Amino acid sequence: MAEPPLQQVTRLAAYGVIWRDGRMLLCHVSPGNLGEGLWTLPGGGLDFGESPEAGVVREVEEETGLVAQISGPPVIHSDAGTWHRRSGDVRYHHIRFVYPMEIVGGEERVEVGGSTDEFGWFTRDEAAAVPLGDLVERVLG
Question: Are 42 and 119 within 8 A, CB to CB?
Fold first, then answer.
């Protein structure tokens, strides 16, 4: 008997690359979320109908309390593969817009009840000592 085809998902997301005083802003993925335990760029999935530009500003503020503005054009990453989830494997096509950004306001605070549970500012050496998501590795290349 043939197995049913895997579920397919296309995910659009936007992330910010933010440096301050030689340190990059990274967020820690909270338990129960895809990529849990990794440090990643602030950002995430777009809401239906939301532009990548609006999404990245919203996500940075949700995850850190900081208000950021885009300072240049994005690098766009398009990846496909299989997510291995507890509920079953899912084929994905992940399109991620990665924007250079700068902080223009807000007050630092940790996201409560979201996909991240901590954030911090890391030098390249400090980032190399923690488990990183693939986008961070690409940016630090």
Answer: yes
Assigned architecture for domain 7-122+135-140: Alpha-Beta Complex (3.90)
Q: What is the pTM of this model?
A: 0.91
Q: How many CB atoms lie within 10 A of CB 23?
A: 15
User: Over the stretch 68-116, which tens digit does the pLDDT of each residue have?
Assistant: 999 999 999 999 999 887 778 889 999 999 999 999 999 999 998 999 9
Residue 139 tokens read as 């940016």
All structural domains of the chain with their residue ranges: 7-122+135-140
Q: Give the up-direction half-sphere exposure of residue 127: CA atoms within 13 A in the CB hemisphere.
A: 26
Whole-angstrom Cα distance, residue 27 to residue 47? 20
DSSP state of 47: P
